[in-house]
Amino acid sequence: MSTSQTIVCFGPGPKFKGGISNYNTSLAKALDKIPDTKVHIVSWTQQYPAIIPREFVDKSSKSDLLEGSNVEVTYITNYNNPLSWLKTAKYIKSLGANKVVIQWSIAIQGLPVGRIINWLRRHTEIEVIVDLHFVLQKEKSNIDRFFLSIGIGNAHSYIVHSLKTFEELKAFYPKKKFDLTYDGKRNQDKAVQSVLKLYHPIYDLFQPDSNFDIEKFKSDNGIKKYVFLFFGFIRKYKGLHQAIESFAKLANERDDVTLLICGESFWHTLDNTKWQTRLKNMLFGLAKKIFVSKADDERNYRPLELVEQLGIQDSVRIYNEFVPNEDVHKYFQISDCVVLYYLTATPSGIESLSYNFHLPILATKVGHFPETIKDGYNGYLAEDRDINSMYEVMQKFIDKPLPKSNVVEVAKDLSWVNYATTILFE
Q1: Whole-angstrom Cα distance, residue 8 to residue 317?
Q2: pLDDT value, residue 268
Q3: pLDDT per residue as tens digits for the range 357-385
Q4: SS3 of the chain: helix, strand, coil, percent, to 5
Q5: How far, in Å, CA of 89 to CA of 333, rounded?
Q6: Please, are residues 159 and 132 in contact by the beta-carbon 8 Å criterion?
Q7: 309-314 long-range contacts, CB within 8 A, separation 24+
Q8: What is the distance between the alpha carbons of residues 178 and 169, in angstroms, rounded to a whole number?
Q9: Most C-beta atoms within 10 A of its C-beta, which of 7, 60, 81, 121?
Q10: How much is the pTM?
């Protein structure tokens, strides 16, 4: 490792909602704790085309996630302004960066990200590292492969959080040579791109509050003995409909269970009475019809309606809104486990957040979950798209509860410090 390094974390800054913003902020804070490093977050001002009808900025949280750190944040990159892409690359160069870690979580960003990477490769000696949350997102459109092809292929190195993602990377770029490493050591052959196999670290931005009265909160909100938590943005790939349907079978058999649903509906964050929102919906709907198959269009995904249809209102508590940072701990502290009955999965921020609160996980056997969840140890696994299996797993969790010490044991090596140190390895 160099005696002194300047690191840029490129991705959404802390003013944005969502797991990628939290991840980028956590990474910057972890790097900042390493001696002789200077860390900058270089962020988007707008992450997506202007026609996308959604509010991406966190207007609810009051806490400063960077408090106590020396990390500096600059909001500069506007998806809708190509001049800002070059400005971003030049700004990163002006910082004297040794490495830039770029968060990759959606293919549509391939156009600006690709231009920034290519400029940095031509004009600087900066190591460009792309942190792959996946290669192609769960909802693939006809144009995603094009954006991916121009987006990340020219990076020096990559980070993957699962072997599945590494296989996807190789499949998309069959002519490229990749070298998988577990210790961070880079391949010195310029014709070979290094791939760092790491893990999704445990979020330390959110901590339990020892003064929080769990039993009072449960009593005040009509929450029963056993609490199953669904947390985060409501997206189709996260399978909330499966969690509700399987929970309904459980709730029809016992009266001591609650399904706690916390998170905003991803595509329902703007005021539809405003003409700007209606215009965005019209333009975005047209683009969806051209580029996205009808089956993948999730704008009409409304799983919360199932609660009333199945008659389980008394056993479900819904907080259908973005949860401010300072309130996150409450919902994890009152819960017994987290439900991740996803349709498709890559390493999940909610999974990592669950470990921070020592909560076992109930998940489907999809994506990387069989890699990280040891069935019967730190969680239980259900069969994919099998409601009966998901119900049986919920029942099993009550009959055979898993000790939180198991979760602690699995999570002990998933620290941000270990993760950041590996990135800095030469």
Answers
A1: 41
A2: 52
A3: 999 999 999 988 998 899 999 999 999 99
A4: 40, 20, 40
A5: 42
A6: yes
A7: 310/244, 310/245, 310/248, 311/248, 312/244, 312/247, 312/248, 312/251, 312/252, 312/259, 314/222
A8: 9
A9: 7
A10: 0.82
> Are the C-beta atoms of 77 and 43 separated by less than 8 Å?
yes
For 22, 117, 291, 342, 382, the CA distances from 366, given in Å and listed in that order, are: 24, 32, 26, 7, 9
Partners of 257 in beta bridges: 226
Buried b (16+ CB within 10 A) or exposed e, 186-214: bbeeeeebbbbbbbbbbbebbeeeeeeee
Both tokens of 86, joined, read 């070059």
Q: How confident is the model at residue 325 (pLDDT cuts 50, 70, 90)?
A: confident
Alpha helices in 292-344 (DSSP H): 305-309, 328-333
The whole-angstrom separation of Cα 9 and Cα 216 is 41
Residue 226, token pair as written in the block: 């056993």
Q: 57 is written with which tokens? A: 């900025």
**Cα end-to-end span (Å), the chain:** 6
Contact 426, 2 (CB under 8 A): yes
β-bridge partners, 46? 78
Whether 271 shows a pLDDT value over 70: the answer reads no
Give the Cα separation of 270 and 144 in Å (integer): 25
Q: List CB contacts of 305: < 8 A, sequence separation 6 or more.
A: none
Structure tokens at 338: 């987290």
What is the 8-class DSSP label of residue 412?
T
Identify any residues that bridge with 340 across adjacent strands, giving them in sequence order: 363
Q: Name the residue type at position 285.
A: G
Residue 208 neighbours by CB under 8 Å, 6+ apart? 329, 332, 333, 357
- Residue linked to tokens 């310029």: 190
Query: Is residue 117 exposed (0-12), middle (13-18) or buried (19+ Cβ within 10 Å)?
Result: buried
Instruction: Give CA–CA dist 42/103, Å, rounded.
Output: 11
Q: CA dist 371 to 127, 297, 345, 384, 408, Å?
A: 29, 29, 11, 15, 17
Q: Which two tokens stand for residue 124?
A: 């600087």
Amino acid, single-letter form, for residue 195: V
Residue 43's DSSP bridge partners are 75
The answer to whether residues 112 and 81 touch, using CB atoms and an 8 Å cutoff, is no
Instruction: Give me 402's structure tokens.
Output: 């898993």
